[in-house]
Amino acid sequence: MQPNKNLKQQGLSDIEHLKVHGRTTGSLSPLTLFWTGSAVEFNARGSELWIEFEVDYEVYEPWIGIVINGAAVSRQMLVAGRYWVCVFRGMNPDAVKNVRIVKELQAMSGDPGCTLQIHAVKFDGEFLPVEDKPYKLEFIGDSITSGEGTVGAKAEEDWIPMWFSALDNYTAMTADALNAEYRVISQSGWGVLTGWDNNPNCNLPDHYEQVCGLLAGPKNEALGAFQANDFDAWQPDAVIINLGTNDGGAFQSPEWRDAVTGETRKQRLLEDGTYHEEDLKSFEQAVSGFLAKLRTYNKQAHLVWAYGMLGIPMLPAIYRGVDAYVRETGDKRVSVFQLPNMTEETVGSRSHPGVEAHHKAAKELSGYLQEILRQV
Amino acid sequence: MQPNKNLKQQGLSDIEHLKVHGRTTGSLSPLTLFWTGSAVEFNARGSELWIEFEVDYEVYEPWIGIVINGAAVSRQMLVAGRYWVCVFRGMNPDAVKNVRIVKELQAMSGDPGCTLQIHAVKFDGEFLPVEDKPYKLEFIGDSITSGEGTVGAKAEEDWIPMWFSALDNYTAMTADALNAEYRVISQSGWGVLTGWDNNPNCNLPDHYEQVCGLLAGPKNEALGAFQANDFDAWQPDAVIINLGTNDGGAFQSPEWRDAVTGETRKQRLLEDGTYHEEDLKSFEQAVSGFLAKLRTYNKQAHLVWAYGMLGIPMLPAIYRGVDAYVRETGDKRVSVFQLPNMTEETVGSRSHPGVEAHHKAAKELSGYLQEILRQV
Amino acid sequence: MQPNKNLKQQGLSDIEHLKVHGRTTGSLSPLTLFWTGSAVEFNARGSELWIEFEVDYEVYEPWIGIVINGAAVSRQMLVAGRYWVCVFRGMNPDAVKNVRIVKELQAMSGDPGCTLQIHAVKFDGEFLPVEDKPYKLEFIGDSITSGEGTVGAKAEEDWIPMWFSALDNYTAMTADALNAEYRVISQSGWGVLTGWDNNPNCNLPDHYEQVCGLLAGPKNEALGAFQANDFDAWQPDAVIINLGTNDGGAFQSPEWRDAVTGETRKQRLLEDGTYHEEDLKSFEQAVSGFLAKLRTYNKQAHLVWAYGMLGIPMLPAIYRGVDAYVRETGDKRVSVFQLPNMTEETVGSRSHPGVEAHHKAAKELSGYLQEILRQV
Amino acid sequence: MQPNKNLKQQGLSDIEHLKVHGRTTGSLSPLTLFWTGSAVEFNARGSELWIEFEVDYEVYEPWIGIVINGAAVSRQMLVAGRYWVCVFRGMNPDAVKNVRIVKELQAMSGDPGCTLQIHAVKFDGEFLPVEDKPYKLEFIGDSITSGEGTVGAKAEEDWIPMWFSALDNYTAMTADALNAEYRVISQSGWGVLTGWDNNPNCNLPDHYEQVCGLLAGPKNEALGAFQANDFDAWQPDAVIINLGTNDGGAFQSPEWRDAVTGETRKQRLLEDGTYHEEDLKSFEQAVSGFLAKLRTYNKQAHLVWAYGMLGIPMLPAIYRGVDAYVRETGDKRVSVFQLPNMTEETVGSRSHPGVEAHHKAAKELSGYLQEILRQV
Question: Locate the SGNH hydrolase-type esterase domain: which residues (chains A, B, C, D) (predicted)?
Answer without folding.
Answer: 139-321
